[in-house]
Structure formats: C-alpha cells, structure tokens
UniProtKB/TrEMBL annotation:
Protein name: Uracil phosphoribosyltransferase
NCBIfam families attached to this UniProt entry: PRK00129.1 (NF001097)
Keyword Mitochondrion attached: no
UniProt cross-references to CDD domains, sorted A to Z: PRTases_typeI
Database matches in InterPro entries: PRTase-like, PRTase_dom, PyrR_bifunctional
Transmembrane regions: none
GO molecular function: glycosyltransferase activity
Lineage: superkingdom: Bacteria
Claim: Repressor is one of the keywords in the record: no
Keywords: Glycosyltransferase, Transferase
Domain Phosphoribosyltransferase, residue spans: 9-211
Amino acid sequence: MITILNKTHSLANQFLAELRHIDIQNDRMRFRRNLERLGEIFAFEISKKMNYVEQEVVTPLGVATVPLLEEQPVLATILRAGLPMHQGLMNYFDKADSAYISAFRKPKKSNDFEIKTEYFSTPDMADRIVIVSDPMLATGQSMVVVCKELMARFEIKELHIACVIASTEGVSHVRANLPKACLWLGAVDEELTSKAYIVPGLGDAGDLCFGEKL
C-alpha cells in the first residue's frame, strides 16, 4: 500500500512547500518544525489503519465508550535527519517505544557507494507494528538495508515506512525489496541525480536541520 499526501488537498502541502522553498529553508527552526508537523500528519494517517478496542471512560457525568488503540507501535528513525519527523510521530503516538539507527553512505572506488549501519538502539520488535521514518527516500538503499536488518533481528508483524519526499527510483527499490511494507509519502519526484539527490527535492535534510557535516 502506498499513500501520497500531496495527491489530495490538505495542510500537508503547505508544510511541504515551505520545506522545499529555498528562502524559508534559511530558518532552521521552521524547517525542523515543518518536518515535525508532517510526522504528526503521518502518525494520524497511519493510525487510521490500526486496530482498536472499545473501552469505557468514566467522565464527571457518566461513562463514555471510546475506541482506543489495541497496541502501541514502535517508532524507529534513521539518524540524524529523521529526528524531527520522529518527534512528530512521538507527539501523537505518545506511549510508543522508540528505536534509533545510524546508516550512512560509504564511497567506493567505482564512484559508487554502499550503505553501512553502525548503531542500533531498539526495544524488542517481535510481533510489533514498526514505523520507520526518514525525510528523504532517494535511492531507497538506506531504507532497505535498515529495514532488512531490523527484520533479520525481529519477526516484525507490520512495517510502515514514512518519508517526506521520495524519488520514483527509491519507491521502486523499496517495493521490490520490501513488498509487504506500507509506504507513506509526502510527495514523489521523478528525477535523481548521479550523486543520488532528489530533484526538485529540497536539498540535504540533515544539513538543513542541524548544519553542514564534515
């Protein structure tokens, strides 16, 4: 299943536009906040597909029956760019467990790169719903490597992937390698440069959030 937010009219498009805008990007706090807002929207949309059980809530005047989440998901993010989105997801799934993974591109002599993972800090994900967030889905290689590593460690019940902007190539790569994952995307752009940057995209999300890295 693939859900693309900008296919319908909503406030998500306003936040996407501001994330892309070269002048508005200069406000680093606003950039992070817009990623957080989209994380909240993804959380709300994903929550519609989850299971609920009716529970009684005692009010000052009586008892109300309310459908509440049957179980809490595990929220996982790829460091460092994923942190603001992760915060947005946590704002809504405020009882969820969290997982943090580092993944980076290691250049090869062939002018290509491979994906390396170094740091995994996760709860037990066995038989759990897992939501992995990362702002950009360029080639899709990092996402596939991270998710396959998680699935090798745990028997995950349900996998959701949330990204603000994806490339068509990245979407195809994820669908081919993670066919059971549900994709939640803000927008999908057609072009990918030779250096694996999405066009028009928005640039380097991590640098725009936290400053340029060495």
